[in-house]
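To assess whether ligand presence alters the predicted conformation, the chain was also submitted together with flavin mononucleotide. Input:
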Amino acid sequence: MVSTKVNLGGLEMATPVATASGTFGYGFEYAGALDYSCLGAVTAKGIRLAPWPGNAMPRHAEVYGGLVNAIGLQGTGLDHFLDITVPHYTAQVKDAPPMIVNIWGGSVDEYAEVARRLTEAAATPECAAIKAIECNVSCPNVKEGGHTFGQDPSVLNRLVSAVRAKTALPLIVKLAPNVPDVRPYVKACEDGGADALSMINTIPAMVIDIERRRPVLANVSGGLSGRGIHPVAVKLVYDAHKATKLPILAMGGVYEAKDAIEFLLAGATAVAVGTATFSDPSTARRVLDGIEEYCTRHGFASVADLAGAAH
Ligand SMILES: Cc1cc2nc3c(=O)[nH]c(=O)nc-3n(C[C@H](O)[C@H](O)[C@H](O)COP(=O)(O)O)c2cc1C
């Protein structure tokens, strides 16, 4: 028997496999398509204070090795999320795994306010499924010039500190992949009081329709996810693990157990399945089964012992 339990910065997970934000709806949509007992956590789609329409269509394009999307963080807003979505998740999903809530905003104050309200709600029976917060820092800082929060270590540090001040829930910061050196960003999160890191978000990308001689996406560009970004993500996880003791939730092209095991060996404590769920909703189950089989074959009594074993 292999122990599959892991602890991601205070978030107790029964298995090391989670879902990635934006690829598993608000968590209840796959009930019936997947046995959730393979999941150590479900990450909800990004949420901010007010409802948000997202980008115009078309907003996704399939490419070799993945998907380019520009959904634009469409969401129902925090009130609807807390009043309707989270209670619905608990009611619809038998033995619902802990929920990580992915948050975003246009200012540091907005992130802090979303975190405060989530923390308050998590203490009520209706929203007790909320067990952690994940900050998506790959969105524009509207109040301060429009650059993303995740591309300036000092802004990132301010954001993490402000959110930390409002929540005692495990705080995960989701790093942007398009930075020259991940280490200053890791330190900014550490100093700001983050409990864990998640990586990677999608990589900026675009697709052109050669017949129309126009970009395929209405938003012109989007973010690449899927198989093609996996080796990029492995390197970033490896580098981040070398730079910090913070636990890492790794994502980026996990389709098979082999992909997840690579992440664990690079230094991740847990992994998230994203784009692969669209083509095979049972991916998380296959991945968990394969991790257990690997541990048995290599004599690891616990999945937690794999973290960073390639260093
Ligand atoms: C359609 C789509 C929507 C996404 N929405 C979000 C989001 O709301 N917040 C976020 O932090 N990441 C979002 N992501 C990024 C994923 O959570 C994940 O980091 C990325 O896709 C890499 O993993 P993958 O290759 O397994 O999909 C989204 C990705 C996709 C494909």
